[in-house]
Amino acid sequence: MIYSQIDEYTSDVQQLSQRIPTLVDDIERVRPKLAILCTGQGVPGAASFCRQFFNGKKASILQQTNHHTVVKLRLDTDTDEYRQVLRLICIVEWQEVERKPGVRQARRIQLIELYSVFDKRNEDERRIRRALQQYQQE
């Protein structure tokens, strides 16, 4: 699995980490789980867990095609004042599995945006569109 992030995401983390001392650790804790949470693949029972995860208030799919899925999820933090207010936007890029028609797996997860609902209510749609342009060019 390839993880990447855009420069604006890096800025988001730097800004928020000034107010949220545990942020870097919070992100590192969830990062290895993103593939399972976003794809429902990787461990036994992941598909069922993934369905439950998206049926609750923890995550939602903003956009989905055969090639990518844009996911918005709530990032839990150990900093009390910011519990349940951080949102992480990422793009999951899909690829077909060789010799298995119709089966696909996550190839890359790109981190797009991290924000607090204290600062803004919704994700930056222009930023998501800019990030998606590279998938249309590939």
Short summary:
With 138 residues, this protein is α+β, with helices and mostly antiparallel strands. It is built from 4 helices and 5 strands.
Structure overview:
- By secondary structure, the chain is an alpha+beta fold.
- The model has no long low-confidence stretch (mean pLDDT 84).
- Strands 1-5-4-3-2 form a five-stranded mixed β-sheet.
- The protein starts with a strand and ends with a helix.
- 37% of the residues lie in helices and 30% in strands.
Please supply descriptive tags for the structure shown above.
4 helices, 37% helix, 138 residues, alpha+beta, five-stranded mixed β-sheet
Topology diagram in text:
Blueprint (H helix, E strand, L loop, with lengths): L1 E4 L1 H11 L5 H17 L6 H10 L3 E6 L3 E8 L10 E11 L7 E13 L8 H13 L1
Parallel strand pairs: 1-5
Antiparallel strand pairs: 2-3, 3-4, 4-5
Helix pairs in contact: 2-3
